[in-house]
Amino acid sequence: MRRTERFPVTGANSLWHVYKTVPFWKVVRNFLVIQIARYTPFLRVKNWLYRVFLKMKVGDQTSFALMVMLDVMFPEKISVGTNTVIGYNTTILAHEYLIKEYRLGNVEIGSGVMIGANSTILPGVNIGDNAIVSAGTLVHKDVPEGAFVGGNPMKIIYTKEELAARWKDDFIYGSNEDDT
Predict the structure, then answer these.
(1) DSSP letter at 73?
(2) Residue 178 resides in a domain
(3) Which domain of life is it from (predicted)?
(4) Cβ–Cβ under 8 Å, residues 115 and 147
(5) Most buried among 25, 28, 84, 180, using CB within 10 Å?
(6) CA distances (Å), origin 135, targets 27, 79, 118, 152
(7) pLDDT single digits (tens) 138-177
(8) What span, in angstroms and rounded, lies between the C-alpha atoms of 42 and 24?
C-alpha cells in the first residue's frame, strides 16, 4: 500500500490548482536543476545538485544515470541510500495530480538498490535495501528488502531468500544459461 497524503480540490481538476500547492519559482528552479543533472555525466555533480538545490537525501556513491527524471515539484520528498544505481530514463514521482484531489508521498529508496532503465516509481513507496527493480517496471507498491521485482503491474519475481538460493546454486554449479 502506498503512503500518500490526500488533498481534495473543488472546481477544476487539481492540476489547475498547482501554484496554490507549490510556488512557481520553486518549480522553475527545480526544473532547471533537474534538466542540468539529467544531461551531466558527472555523478558527483549530480548528487551535489540534488542535495544542495533540491534538498534531497542522497547517499554516498549513489549513481543516477543519464536522463533520470525526478519529481519537479516535490523532490525533497525523495531519499536514496548509499551505493544505489538509478537506471537510465527512470522517473521518480512524489506527487500525483488527479481530477478531484492531489496526493503527496515520500519515496524512500534503500542502499545497494538497483533500479533498471525506464522504470517509474510512484509516490509513497519504499524500496528496501539491496532490492533489484527490473527495467521498465512500474513500482506502485513497496518492494521488500533484497527482492527482485519487475513488470507492469509490478510483481515479486524472487524474494530475498529465493534470490540468495539461486545465486548460491549459480556459484556452486555455474550458470548454464549461455551453454548450448
Answers:
(1) S
(2) no
(3) Bacteria
(4) no
(5) 84
(6) 28, 20, 6, 10
(7) 999 999 999 999 999 999 999 999 888 887 766 665 655 5
(8) 28
Please state the separation of Cα 109 from the chain's center in Å.
7
Domain that holds residue 66: 5-173
Q: Which grid cell is 64?
A: 543516477
**Is there a domain that residue 179 lies in?**
no
The arithmetic mean of pLDDT across residues 63-79, rounded, is: 98
Q: Which residues contact 78 (CB under 8 A, 6 or more apart)?
A: 56, 57, 70, 71, 92, 94, 106, 107, 109
Q: Report residue 1's pLDDT band, with 50, 70 and 90 as the boundaries.
A: confident
Contact criterion met (CB below 8 Å) for 107 and 94: yes
Q: How far is CA 112 from the centre of its chain?
A: 13
Number of domains in the chain: 1
User: In one letter, which amino acid is 31?
Assistant: F
Give the mean pLDDT of the chain. 94
Closest CA to 90 of 135, 29, 152: 135
